[in-house]
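Hi V.,

You were right to ask for the full record rather than a summary. Here it is.
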Amino acid sequence: MTAEDPQNKAADAAAKPGPDDDKAHADIDHDNSDSPDATPKEHLPVLLRPFLEAAKPRTGTRWIDGTFGRGGHTAPLLEEGALVLGLDQDETSRPAAIELAERYPGQLTWMRDNFRNITLACREVGWTTVHGILLDLGVSSPQLDVADRGFSLRHDGPLDMRMDRRRPLTAATLVNESDEAELARIFYEYGDEKFSRQVARAIVRHRPLHSTLALAELVKQSVPHPRGKRAGGGGKGVHPATRIFQALRIAVNDELGVLREVLPQAAALLEPGGLLCVISFHSGEDKLVKDYLNKHASPWLDTPKFPNTLPNPEQYFERALRHMPDAEEEAANPRCRSARLRIGVRNANPIFTPPEHKRWGKSNPKPKGFKKSE
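Predicted structure:
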């Protein structure tokens, strides 16, 4: 396999944006200009050791790296002889893919695609099942460090924040065209911003806004007081706009929507014993993954009044595991501090299809005259 041209069918299907890259940063508290350790000296893949210990790659195993980035997690898989399908909606990951494809001929296929299209991408390379899937969510250090991407409040740049720059929606569009209530919702739901209404009101009053530093300064002036210092007393604290930038990025790229779409696809693609590995930095993403794995790793349905009485027809995982950075990794890469790696181990149960009479709902109303089959 080789690093493919992005103009293939799978790449053409990548019209919708989503999470990206081999992350080495924490969404909430490590992209702020006041922190002396905000930028690591080199790009470091997060939680690589526990990932590889769980993955145990070997010759011929099929892996999907849905957030290829600079190939930090893919390279060790290739070194052990695994076959890798690398997906990334960001064109800037192409050079790293080409380099790895040349170093490991026949083992890597790269596509410019969003991992919400993971099933289509597998069909493109002729795979029906895989031994493992890795998703490393959030924004990457290389993306943060390029001012014109608009992800970071440390550099002055346009309010862009698109993972896939082919997409039309930008942060500037949201900031300058959304009404006050919608902005407040985005800031509260995606950034856990307790001053969401104050910030939204200030933006509406002072827009149009087109640069990252202009937005960051406006947020700083609109909240009652700056964020407190981090635990331990180091640095000058988190910049007041950090959560606002996070929320805008998540909204621009529909990151939670993409994650909800890919999880059931991943379960359907994994072979028995295969691994679903998800690295997240944002509490909302981590909760979504945790809830999904817990629901589909439990042998029983959640019936509080009568626990452990009804078997779970959607138990797709034998067990769910969690890993966090150790002290050594945190010291080497401060941006990894809020990272969480959750792993689901696939069982042999087939994907459950509910009986026809239970499929009806608001989005799929029961047709007139429908009767349950005997």
